[in-house]
Amino acid sequence: MKKVVIIGGGISGLCSAYYLLKEGYEVTLLEKKDLSEGASVVNAGYNTPRHIIPLAAPGMVNQGLKWMWKSTSPFYIKPRWNLEFFDWAWKFKKSSTKAHVERSIPVLKEISLKSNILYEEILETVDFDTHYRKDGLLTVFQTEKAKKTEIEKGKMIQSENLDVEVLSKNEVLDMQPVLDEKILGAVYYKCDAHSTPGDFISRFGDWLTKNGADLIFNEEVIELIRKGNDLVSVKTSSRNYEADLFVLAAGSWSPQLTKTLGLKIPIQGGKGYSMDVYRETGITLPAILAESKVAVTPMDGFTRFAGTMEFSGNNDIIRKERVGAIAKAAKDYYKNIELTMEEMDNARSGLRPVSPDGLPFIGKTSRYNNLIIAAGHAMIGWSLGAVTGKLVSQIATGRKPSVNLYPFRPDRFF
């Protein structure tokens, strides 16, 4: 039986473990913390074919420059001298073109739709129940500027044969009476679904363990050991783990490890925040609050308010002004909803691994025979977890990948 070591216990790592188990591999998964933290747990829980426009798009650089000096803005860069970030930012700027967006839309659409199908197949296969709803998602706007932008975006996504509808103010309020009268309308993405990430991750981890995977927590990988064009082991603070195959799914920490192999995988951690409200809010549909870029999700037993993209290095520092901006958006868009100090004090953060072009890195590099990289999924990591795991297993077994992997090749920036 072939051995595989998977580095990273987020959704991509767990789904890789699932599919490699099914292929007969002896699976060891190493996670530097446990399954209760990180971007795969604190995210908005969207399974979202809607998200087919990459982050690297025309106008993003200029918008980012306007926002970057305001610590409460949806997009924030903490000023710091960091050559790797400067290199990433330059690559992001070069990727932010109309041509790149046009190339990326069909690619992201295909991989997202396949991931949703695979996610539902996983739920049918495992022997546990978890919260998963196909209720769609509203993008709600309050200003004429946002209305124009969101309707144009909605019609473009609709032209890709995804189920999208533009709703008037009254139609939205009929669906979600808890929304404030200040709204002007919404775009309704009927194609989207949502789930409760923390619950799924926890139950999935238990299922993998029961079915033969060895999940090892609080074990941080510090070096990848190579011999020629092959990896032979990974080194942690306590021991070495040998294997035939290695999968790097360590999110924002992946570049630290590829650096030990002479590989530069340009990923920056984009910090997001979330707060959970365990009281009745009246919110029954997921929503993106357009002007503030805040995501709202009714989950299993609570409502989650999440958002912001903060580039400040790989850390878990909670910045109160950014938490306050999310809380303000909740109050501005909904009637009688105001987050308490306790709810804000319990805010959590996670680092989205952001590539310069908004596309994940999935596949082998040209330099190593037995290393598969699965990282850089940015804001759609939860959506793409299932298909990423499937692709990892197809690469491992030499089968034809179910999507064209060329746009996701890890060495495209070498």
UniProtKB/TrEMBL annotation:
Membrane spanning stretches: none
Q: Sorted alphabetically, which keywords does the UniProt record give?
A: Oxidoreductase
Q: Which domain of life is it from?
A: Bacteria
GO MF terms here are: oxidoreductase activity
This protein's GO cellular component annotations are:
cytoplasm
Q: Does the keyword Transport apply?
A: no
The FAD dependent oxidoreductase domain, residue ranges: 3-394
Output this protein's name.
Answer: D-amino-acid dehydrogenase
